[in-house]
Amino acid sequence: MESDPEQPAATPERPKIRPLEAFPVVVENRQVVCLRDPQRISDQTLFVSRHAYFIISRFNGENSILDVQSDFARRFGEIIFRERILELIAQLDEACFLDNDRFRRRLDDLKSEYDSRPLRKACHAGTSYPAEPEALRSRLDEIFALHPPDGASPKNAAAAVAPHIDIAAGAAAYAAAYREISASDADTFVILGTAHSGSGDLFCVPEKDFETPLGAVLLDRDALESVRTKLGDAVHDGEFHHRAEHSVEFQTVFLSYLFGARRDFRILPVLCDSFHHMLAAGVEPRDVPEVKNLVEALLEILRSRPGRVCVIAGADLAHVGRRFGDDVAMTHVLLERVKREDLEMLERVEACDPAGFFASLAGDGDWRRICGFSAIYLMLNLLDGKRGRLLLYDQAVEQQAQSVVSFAALAYH
Question: What is the pTM of this model?
Fold first, then answer.
């Protein structure tokens, strides 16, 4: 008989942990490890000790509880009782952090819910930005007012790099990028987003229109069909896995704010998975057939509608520090190094030089983990040598996690 989904699943003798985000944080003056689900199948967050984290790291589906006890004794010189491991397994099971029947039931439920919705839900409304329309308008009014332009009036942008970091942290860069985009005559915006929850494919082009508190943002169905013709139906297969992706969602919020009441517009969202394995192999992305085909499909759209399409790369830059696996402290020297090397890299981005951009990352092994690598690289291949301008560079430093994320705003005219 199938177990009651409301009851904890039977504890397996060889538990298997799902892929999770794990990073150190300080809670009540105690260093612990934070566990989160990058796919948002579970919305829970767990804080565990380093001893508990070691135990969890041994849950690979092959190690038995006895194996874990033995590994723990060898590592720490202490005995961990079976009951404590069972308690930890039950906690992980309750959070849907284990690869088991409870998780699969949860996954099936979420897929059914997603398929039943006519729109892709505004997943971060109410957390990253206000869910109420008037409150959202007021917040965005405030962002643009607090970060006024420092120069000439914005021009008609053919493309831009905007952040995808939390809107509060990146407010000045969002304002700088979208002030330029606000002057655009485009009626279609190609949004190249960074895929943080990979589906196993290099790209995903969602088929659902996007919900925002300011109204629905509709897809350009003709452009969508053009991409489908070039790349095939498989380009939509991973859509569910990106249902909580923020890198495109945040761009739709700003576009809806700027244009929703002014004119009809459409978007073509493209979620880009990591290109970092290409760096390791020394293969430039444009030599990979899937990348080449997507670039050709997007170029056909741009060429068939001259001046009517604007490309936006929703891309952050460096990810350095303990949250990302670096055993470093956020010193002034380190932050200045990150800034210096980011700005050197951005010179290639300003010059619309995709090969130079790739070479700048390959040259140092991308030690800064430029998470917008794929989105920026694709954008540069679409701009036919247009010269860009760096509008703003900034860093969000998280002292508690001893980490930094950098980001920038650029515009191409």
Answer: 0.88
